[in-house]
Amino acid sequence: MTLPLGISRPHASMAHISKDEVGHYQGLREKLIDIREDRQRVGALAKENEEKYDKLREEKAYSIDVTMKECHKLERQRVMAELGKKHLAEKDAKKAEYRALVAEFKGHGETINKELEDIIQNEANVEREMKHSSKNLSLDDILAHMDKEADRKRMRKRRKTEGIPAGDRRIGDDIGLLSYLPDEIVRAAPFNNKAESGGHPLPLRVLFGKLEKGSRNVWAWLHNKPGSNRSPEVRLKVFSRTGQPEEPIALQDAMEKATPMPAFTYLKPQDGRFDRTHLSSVLRYYFILQKVELPYQWPISDVFVAELRVACKVAEANAKERKGAGTKEPEGSRDCRRGLAPGSTLAGTQSPMPSPEETPATSPEAFIEAYKLNITENERESQTFLGVQLEELEEEEDTLKNALKQAKEERKRLRTSVSERDLVLLQLGQDLAHTVSKRLLFDDSGEE
Q1: What is the distance of C-alpha 332 from the center of its chain?
Q2: pLDDT per residue over 300-346, tens digit each?
Q3: pTM of the full predicted structure?
Q4: What angle do CA 297, 300, 301 make, to 5 degrees?
Q5: Measured distance CA(208)–CA(230) in Å, rounded
């Protein structure tokens, strides 16, 4: 065999090395073939795993899109059904409360109208009886009736004054002056003292007057300091027309700004101002007549008795002044002079009783006129009392209207609350679905 130019025949040792290299090469070639076969096998397994993953992902996506949404939908429907039942129950309760308030309001209105009709009917009947009886009454009958009526008034005043604790007798012979303080027309009401602090307010208040601006009232109440055995302190507070407490008011401001009630009218001169001491003593006197329970016996000092006596004399002087000016005299003021004891300090101020010879003859017409005047005054007293009751019913009516308004606002608030709950539940469902989706994606990424 002829070799190409430049190539010599290999040496015998070189031939031996070539055989070894060829064997090594052949081994590497076989190993490469095995590696390629392993790669093909691994690729097939990877493709199979990818197909399984795609199938599993499709199944989970269907579970999220359909199953979870259906579960959330059923849960929302269940919660909404429960909220709807609760809302209907609350709505029915509010409607029942509203109907009860309306019925009570109508009942009060019917009661007021019936009382007014009864008053008008009684007034007409009295006038008719007066006209009929004036023709048949004799002079002795008229005199006996007037004496009986005077005795009845004196007994009524005596029953009022006998309810005063120890200390009323210290007024002495001037006890009749108390009739110038018309305590029977004092308006009292319960007082909720839970909001007060720094003492123990007593659960009773007395109406002093009305403020000129607005429809607010000034009420007096008693404040008892803890651990004190002294007389309770009289304080004043402004209340709304519906009976809600607002802010305290000083006694001096109340005397200047408020229009006093009839029970305090004669303490104030026509062209003057209240006296602070007189007003305080009369307020305490009215509270005593209300029989307010104290943890100890009510201390009545000689100073209080003296101040009350002076206040009664001031009321008497103002009543006489108004009577001279043609103003209506306070009820009971004519009887108080008859009720004075013979040794009273005021006995000297009374005009001397005329002797029988000096007494002028009185005609039956004059006694009939006096009888009519007496009945008219009784009717005025009844109208005053009914007017006070009517005002109280009007205040109660305002309170009921306020309660109805609050019920409507509460019903509106409940509706708004239910709507807000619906929005919150919807948002909660969306957040839950979003959270589940994120968790599933996180689990999938962890498996990879």
Answers
A1: 38
A2: 777 888 888 888 888 888 888 877 765 554 444 334 333 333 333 33
A3: 0.40
A4: 135
A5: 23
